[in-house]
């Protein structure tokens, strides 16, 4: 197999992973705070010293 | 509920479960599918179908009570044991189970070690999450409290599937999901576990995605990761315990896809009965779906496109002709009893698929009542309070609305999906990138993707543009999960950073999806605390104040459960909480007009056999609330018992 043929799947996989990371960062901008809000609330009951964050449920 | 009564009720439930599962196993043996994954899909589907059919027939006969069902279940088991060929078949169940265990072991040993650990953790956490939410919270999702569970409550209360007098006309819509949900209320005569009604569909959808991926040629680990990814979709997770019927439609769509792919991919079946089994189960699935929610019809063109394109457009006709010929030959080779049994089952599926619409047609002249139907401006059926439209303008509006929701940036993902798609971290993170990759590099994938797209477009020709309409698209993230499974198998093992990176992102995305859904993104710890302070049997939908006006709590506290409670709500108001969790409260609808005088309202209440009238802000039209308040203030006929609850004056 030529090195060109070997490189194609590698490049494809690397591109998909890179695109995924960018997409996750983009999606996380909106959703991260909501996704972690409840876990944070639970953590606050265990560690009452944690600062209060507005916008949770 | 006393302990002996609870034991008896659980015994009845267990008897019926054994009956339905034994029957499913018997029929499953007559429908070999040739592949373990598809076989599992078939078994789960048969379980759902037979449970629904059993309850449906019992409901029509007025036998929807724990004792009657237990007698029917025992009788069914006795018949199965009495017929020699069935008994022989039943005796082979342990052998079949050991075969399934071997298949499961083969599957398990194919998974890499890290995936086994992750799978165990994911399954355990999911089970705990489902169990906790079902146990801790009463139902609270809007559509459930207006019509889905209102049907379930009325049927459980009266022991019969029937229509009843209510302003919520959506109780007329196809209700196979509600029949299945009754399985979770009728034995306990309580709604403590009704949120579990979505779990069979969730399981079916999960296994169907796995079977689809296997049909596409994916390895077991890749197929399993694709299936887990789909199962972590927040919109699906939230709806599963949200007592809504959309997870069922999604599961039926994906099951149909698994069966279609199996038929379309195979060049020639090793056993002609496989084609017969797949076609038979496909018919059952689509009929079950037709009696669950009408929008399955809008998804069919996409499935048809996949069926046409997968074998290749030119080969499609001979391919499907060959499959049908195989099925016909297999049908001819079956024994007379097997043929009769399968024909009877198909008749049952036709009944479940058509009953609701035929009933509506007979009663109202419109099979889709309460929806009138308009296609490109032409009225097809006019009777109804709402109109289902099919036109290009609606498609444009819906696509524009989807563009706004894409990326879930507008707010938290909640069960009603306000302004969000609910497709979650995996879909937007790994799924989309894998989708683009699969479209560009896998020749077989575009036909599948176009099928999903066509289903989406046809659906969007008709659904009402609204902030909450993405619940109809719970099946859609499946395409990204399948693309991801294909991509995983193409992932080079070296350099190690690639598979390790892929696995890390996968685990992180699924964990975040799960974290999003731990509390439906709307139930605070305090609210959980308030519910958990009460014993399980006293957790009421009326008491969970997420979207519940205080009037409902007052009705539970102050209206006597021994007397019928009159109510007046609008066409989108909550009724379900008034039944109470143990379905003891009899309800009667009291129609009140804005201009009715107080004497007339009192006469209406007496005529309906109630002393009480319930109204609630946001659920009863404002003018009617004002009218009733005026009557209570003038004191001649009504008195205010508590907020929203009025009682006839003794002398009126």
Structure overview:
The complex is a heterodimer of chains A (57) and B (652). Chain A is mainly alpha-helical. Chain A has a domain at 25-50. Chain A contains one helix and no strands. Chain A is rod-shaped. Chain A starts with a helix and ends in an 11-residue tail after the last helix. Chain B has helices at 3-30, 36-60, 66-82, 84-91, 93-110, 113-136, 142-158, 176-182, 199-215, 220-231, 234-240, 246-265, 272-290, 296-309, 316-333, 336-364, 392-405, 424-441, 445-460, 478-489, 497-517, 525-532, 550-558, 598-607, 622-634; strands at residues 371-375, 378-381, 386-390, 565-567, 587-589, 612-614, 638-642, 645-648. Among the domains of chain B are: 31-64 and 111-140 and 173-355 and 494-517, no CATH class; 536-648, no CATH class. By secondary structure, chain B is mainly alpha-helical. In chain B, helix 9 runs antiparallel to helix 10 (220-231), helix 10 (220-231) packs antiparallel against helix 20 and helix 13 packs parallel to helix 16 (336-364). Chain B has a five-stranded mixed β-sheet. A three-stranded mixed β-sheet of chain B has the order 2-1-3. The interface between A and B is medium-sized, with 31 and 38 residues.
DSSP strand tally of chain B: 8
The largest β sheet of chain B comes out as: 5 strands, mixed
- Topology pattern of chain A, helix = H, strand = E: H
* General form of chain A: rod-shaped
Give me the oligomer status.
heterodimer
Strand-residue fraction of chain A?
under 5%
* Largest interface (C-beta under 8 Å): A-B, 31 and 38 residues
Strand content of chain B: under 5%
Helix share, percent of chain A: over 70%
What Rg of chain B is obtained from the alpha carbons, in whole angstroms?
26 Å
Trace the largest sheet of chain B across and list its strands: 5-4-6-8-7
Average predicted local confidence, pLDDT of chain B: 94
Secondary structural class of chain A = mainly alpha
First-residue to last-residue Cα separation of chain A: 56 Å
Average pLDDT reading of chain A: 83
Measured distance between first and last alpha carbons of chain B: 38 Å
Number of helical runs of chain B? Answer: 25
């Amino acid at each position: 197999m030529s090195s060109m043929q070997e490189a194609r799947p590698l490049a494809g996989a690397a591109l998909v992973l890179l695109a995924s990371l960018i997409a996750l960062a983009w999606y996380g901008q909106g959703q991260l705070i909501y996704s972690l809000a409840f876990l944070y609330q639970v953590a606050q009951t265990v560690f009452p010293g944690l600062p209060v964050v507005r916008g949770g449920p | 509920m006393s302990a002996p009564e609870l034991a008896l009720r659980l015994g009845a439930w267990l008897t019926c479960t054994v009956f339905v599962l034994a029957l499913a196993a018997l029929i499953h043996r007559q429908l070999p599918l040739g592949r373990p994954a598809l076989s599992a899909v078939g078994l789960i589907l048969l379980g759902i179908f037979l449970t629904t059919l059993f309850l449906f027939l019992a409901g029509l006969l007025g036998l929807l009570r724990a004792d009657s069902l237990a007698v029917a279940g025992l009788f069914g088991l006795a018949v199965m044991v009495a017929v020699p060929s069935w008994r022989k078949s039943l005796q082979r169940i342990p052998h079949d189970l050991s075969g399934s265990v071997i298949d499961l072991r083969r599957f398990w040993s194919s998974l890499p070690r890290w995936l086994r650990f992750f799978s165990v953790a994911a399954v355990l956490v999911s089970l705990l999450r489902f169990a906790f939410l079902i146990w801790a919270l009463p139902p609270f999702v809007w559509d459930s409290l207006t019509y889905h569970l209102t049907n379930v409550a009325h049927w459980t209360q009266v022991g019969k599937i029937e229509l009843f007098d209510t302003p919520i006309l959506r109780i007329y819509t196809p209700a196979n999901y509600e029949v299945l949900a009754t399985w979770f209320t009728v034995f306990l005569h309580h709604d403590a576990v009704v949120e579990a009604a979505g779990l069979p569909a969730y399981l079916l959808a999960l296994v169907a995605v796995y079977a689809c991926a296997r049909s596409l040629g994916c390895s077991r680990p890749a197929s399993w990761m694709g299936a887990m990814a789909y199962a972590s979709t927040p919109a699906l997770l939230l709806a599963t315990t949200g007592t809504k019927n959309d997870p069922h439609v999604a599961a039926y769509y994906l099951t149909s896809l698994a069966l279609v792919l199996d038929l379309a991919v195979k060049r020639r079946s090793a056993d002609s009965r496989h084609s017969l089994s797949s076609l038979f189960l496909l018919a059952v699935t689509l009929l079950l779906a037709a009696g669950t929610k009408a929008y399955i019809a809008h998804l069919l063109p996409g499935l048809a496109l996949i069926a046409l394109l997968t074998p290749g457009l030119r080969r499609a006709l001979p391919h499907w002709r060959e499959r049908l010929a195989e099925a016909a030959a297999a049908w001819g080779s079956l024994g007379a009893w097997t043929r009769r049994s399968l024909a009877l089952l198909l008749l049952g599926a036709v009944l479940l698929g058509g009953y609701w619409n035929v009933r509506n047609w007979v009663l109202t002249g419109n099979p889709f009542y309460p929806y009138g139907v308009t296609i490109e401006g032409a009225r097809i059926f006019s009777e109804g309070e709402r109109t289902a439209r099919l036109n290009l303008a609606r498609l444009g509006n819906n696509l524009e609305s989807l563009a706004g929701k894409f990326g879930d940036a507008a707010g938290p993902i909640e069960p009603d999906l306000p302004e969000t798609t609910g497709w979650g971290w995996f879909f937007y993170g790994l799924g989309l990138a894998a989708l683009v990759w699969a479209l560009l590099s896998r020749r077989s994938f575009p036909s599948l993707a176009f099928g999903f797209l066509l289903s989406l477009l046809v659906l969007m020709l008709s659904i009402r543009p609204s902030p909450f309409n993405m619940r109809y698209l719970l099946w859609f993230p499946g395409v990204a999960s399948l693309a991801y499974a294909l991509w995983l198998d193409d992932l080079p093992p070296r350099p190690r950073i690639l598979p390790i990176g892929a696995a890390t992102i996968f685990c992180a995305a699924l964990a975040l999806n799960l974290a999003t859904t731990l509390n439906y993104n709307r139930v605070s710890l305090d609210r959980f605390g308030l519910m958990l302070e009460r014993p399980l049997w006293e957790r009421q939908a009326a008491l969970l104040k997420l979207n519940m006006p205080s009037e409902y709590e007052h009705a539970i506290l102050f209206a006597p459960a021994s007397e019928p409670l009159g109510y007046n709500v609008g066409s989108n108001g909550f009724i379900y909480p008034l039944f109470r969790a143990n379905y003891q409260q009899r309800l009667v609808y009291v129609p009140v007009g804005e201009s009715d005088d107080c004497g007339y309202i009192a006469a209406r209440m007496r005529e309906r056999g109630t002393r009480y009238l319930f109204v609630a802000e946001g659920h009863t039209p404002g003018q009617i609330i004002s009218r009733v308040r005026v009557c209570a203030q003038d004191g001649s006929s009504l008195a205010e018992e508590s907020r929203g609850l009025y009682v006839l004056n003794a002398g009126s």
